[in-house]
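Researcher: Can you fold this with magnesium ion in place?
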Amino acid sequence: MPILPRRGLRRRLALILAPSLLALLLMSAAAQYLLTVRPMQREMDHRLADVAIALAERLGVDGAGRAVFSLPEAAAELLGADATDSNWYAAFDERFVPIAGETALRWPTAAFARGRPHFFDTTLGATRVRAVAVKTRCGDRECGVVTASTLHKRASLIRAVLISTLLPVALAGLLALALLWFGLGSGLRPLVRLSAEVERRSSRDLSPIRVEDAPGEVQPLVAAVNRLMAQLGEAGSAQQKFLSTAAHQLRTPLAGLQSRIELALLETHEPEGRARLADIHESAVRAARLAVQLLSLARAEPGASTADPRVPLDLARLATELVDEWVPRAIARRIDLGFELESAPVLGQPLLLRELMVNLLHNALEYTPPGGRVTLRCGREGGCSVLAVEDNGPGIAPALREKALQRFVRLPGTPGAGSGLGLAIVSEIAEGHQAVLQLREAPGPHGLLAHVAFPAA
Ligand SMILES: Nc1ncnc2c1ncn2[C@@H]1O[C@H](COP(=O)(O)OP(=O)(O)OP(=O)(O)O)[C@@H](O)[C@H]1O
Ligand SMILES: [Mg+2]
């Protein structure tokens, strides 16, 4: 599946949804933790308090009214330690000075009422302990008992709860994120497919996108794009029809004009008049060629209404038809024009392919100085049918090749009076045939190699 762009919908949705999902999971983990740990801690506190209350029963007053504490030795030992924690107690007199048990234990500083255990955290030496103080009556005054216990059981309890609540939540979180990511991916797949389909299209393909294939939410967008493409197509074909009609209309009078000038040339013997007529003749020829080029351009454009059907044909045969017309022209320009023709089957429009060859030949003969060499070659190359026109003229600098393909672009310093349409026509026709046009360096010291690779028929 194609990766979505950095600022894609999947990323955005994931960025919006993932934090909420994580917050939800963390909240549920915190709630679970509190709901489990708090009651357990409270339960342990109460056990500690029960011992303190029982010990407080052992406090009394002697005859002199002083607080006394008595506990059988065996009971005191029992209180000492369990398997996990160490436990201590201390009995305090009416001035809250320890009189029995662990005298390092301190009475809490906070005030609290009798009859209610007071829980607090403190230290015994360097050991942190949980403690509870219980007040009782010693005669007409108050005394009390503190019991304390190390935190090992509590710590291991917290660890156990943390592991048993957080681990599943973390795993569920990861799983949820993965599901979210892949869920979004698969949910957005129709969109990705749609964009890939649009991207795959060539600029010539204005056929509507299938609305039924798009997800419901996107169908209006697809329909709008289809409408836009239809409008584009209509505008394009109107413009193209106009161009083709105008060029066609121009061709006939221009041909008439050309033959009339030729007739006049035959009848005129006076040198000055002949020179002037020859000038006019050249302009007429150029105008007629421009009309032909415009017509070719209109025909080669995408969706041309005047397009000929594509037929299986051989580039070699098509090129053979050019020999008679182009060899004399080459001879007139003192250029050695060669044809190296091997079978090159393609599926194409003969008129346009002929036009493609003619424009390449025209350039090669036009820009190669007298004495030069031009070769039109066709054949098969690695599964493609290839047409190449090679010359040993000045060539085109690599940086200017892209530009030379544009319409009405003539490179600076180019001799003659062309319109800059030849290579644009070649490029348009090649594209229309799904062929790849490349302007390359000719293998010689200089020159241009125009190379067109067609998908084999
Ligand atoms: N075989 C070549 N050798 C050197 N330069 C070339 C060759 N073919 C094209 N060029 C350069 O590329 C430019 C564009 O060529 P293109 O055929 O599009 O227009 P043009 O030949 O100037 O005019 P047109 O073909 O419309 O008469 C030319 O002006 C020329 O500078
Ligand atoms: Mg040209």
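Model: Folded with magnesium ion in place. The longest strand covers residues 127-138.
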